[in-house]
């Protein structure tokens, strides 16, 4: 595989007394070269934390991550960071409003001379469908949300990374431009043979863009496999409730089951989904299910225990 590992991530929040939030716990995941892995889940499922960890913006407190066969350590993290980029939901939060577009896009190119910088900015703006002469001297406030997300994508790909984490890159945009940005991301992934982890809560977007889909619930990976298979025959009760409750193809959002996503400070014992699961059995509250392999699909549910 291309990127993978086994790790738990802990975030510490200090309010009245220190509490430990396990934003992700024991995630065992592999991402393959040139694939688009869609990562879906409700808010609070840990998908953004997972994206930040894989984009090397946060360190897991336990476990290890391998990038192209090499374990990520403090020694090689700078080299790996050049090959990994993240695009966020809201472009204006990741773009400095006081900088001109040229400087925003060129910012990651530190040790490059001015002539080459201009050439590369020009090329990358072309890649994202923007005209260099039209945008390079403008400020972010002079561009639309869709144009700004194109700028954020241009800045992410200018260093020629091989892995992009895309965190809900279309959900803050007007519906009319969401499809354009999605198609642009598909085109760039194919042309540059990139690997994506595409985080979304929109099941139709996940289906459209992904080769495989992973489902997160309360910091745990519950199911992962081929995108079409997961959508047409979800096996984990949580995935079933997300997908089967979509009444029509025009409905776009995930429709989570009744009940709250559990607290990550004090998560339920055993299977974290057991308080909301219609199929919960005795074992479910006592013992955590491992990821069972079901014809190439991985599903963390005792119902799938073949032994
Ligand atoms: Fe439901 Fe048990 Fe499967 Fe968890 S392990 S999803 S509680 S049946």
UniProtKB/TrEMBL annotation:
GO biological process terms, semicolon-separated: peptide transport; transmembrane transport
Keywords annotated in UniProt: ATP-binding, Nucleotide-binding, Transport
A single GO molecular function term of this UniProt record: ATP binding
Positions of the ABC transporter domain: 1-243
SUPFAM superfamilies xrefs: P-loop containing nucleoside triphosphate hydrolases
Superkingdom per UniProt: Archaea
Pfam families in UniProt: ABC_tran, oligo_HPY
SMART domains: AAA (SM00382)
InterPro entries, per the entry: AAA+_ATPase (IPR003593), ABC_transp_ATP-bind (IPR050319), ABC_transporter-like_ATP-bd (IPR003439), ABC_transporter-like_CS (IPR017871), Oligopep_ABC_C (IPR013563), P-loop_NTPase (IPR027417)
NCBIfam families referenced in this protein's UniProt entry, alphabetically: oligo_HPY
Recorded family membership: Belongs to the ABC transporter superfamily.
Stated name of the protein: Dipeptide/oligopeptide/nickel ABC transporter ATP-binding protein
């Amino acid at each position: 595989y291309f990127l993978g590992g086994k790790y738990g991530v802990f975030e510490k929040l200090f309010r009245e007394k220190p509490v430990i939030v396990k934003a992700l716990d024991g995630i065992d995941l592999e991402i393959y070269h040139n694939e688009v892995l869609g990562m879906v889940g409700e808010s609070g499922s840990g998908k953004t934390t997972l994206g930040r960890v894989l984009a090397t913006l946060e360190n897991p407190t336990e476990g290890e991550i391998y990038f192209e066969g090499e374990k990520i350590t403090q020694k090689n993290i700078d080299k790996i960071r050049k090959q990994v980029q993240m695009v966020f939901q809201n472009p204006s939060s990741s773009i400095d409003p006081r900088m001109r577009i040229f400087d925003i896009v060129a910012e990651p190119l530190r040790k490059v001379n001015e002539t080459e910088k201009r050439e590369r900015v020009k090329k990358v703006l072309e890649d994202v469908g923007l005209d260099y002469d039209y945008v390079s001297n403008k400020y972010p406030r002079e561009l639309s949300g869709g144009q700004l997300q194109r700028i954020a994508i241009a800045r992410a790909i200018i260093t020629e990374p091989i892995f992009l984490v895309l965190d809900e890159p279309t959900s803050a945009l007007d519906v009319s431009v969401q499809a354009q940005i999605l198609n642009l991301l598909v085109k760039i992934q194919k042309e540059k043979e990139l690997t994506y982890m595409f985080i979304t809560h929109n099941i139709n977007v996940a289906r459209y863009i992904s080769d495989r889909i992973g489902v997160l619930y309360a910091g745990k990976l519950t199911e992962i496999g081929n995108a079409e298979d997961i959508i047409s025959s979800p096996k984990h009760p949580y995935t079933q409730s997300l997908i089967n409750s979509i009444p029509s193809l025009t409905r776009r959002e995930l429709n989570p089951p009744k009940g709250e996503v559990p607290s990550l400070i004090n998560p339920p014992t055993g299977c974290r989904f057991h308080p909301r699961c219609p199929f919960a059995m005795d074992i479910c509250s006592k013992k955590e299910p491992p990821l069972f392999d079901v014809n190439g699909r991985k599903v963390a549910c005792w119902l799938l225990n073949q032994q």
